[in-house]
Write a structure and sequence with these properties.
The chain is an alpha+beta fold.
Length: 67
């Protein structure tokens, strides 16, 4: 997979912790709103990563955090 995390920002919500993760594709951001929902992609004009599931997205973040 060629999508890689480049930075991550965590924030507190009333139900937990959310995050926003920038990637090496500047049109793709991995997000979780911290309100108990799934991790998802926000993309601006690209759908090439729409088939990635929540576990795959979180693995991208885990790889970044292991560095």
């Amino acid at each position: 997979m060629n999508l890689k995390a480049t930075s991550i920002r965590y924030f507190a919500t009333r139900r937990g912790v959310g995050y926003e993760c920038e990637t090496n594709n500047k049109n793709v951001i991995i997000c979780n709103d911290g309100n108990g929902g799934a991790t998802y992609i926000v993309s601006n004009g690209t759908s090439m990563y729409d088939d990635l599931n929540e576990n795959q997205l979180e693995e991208i973040i885990d790889e970044y955090e292991r560095q």
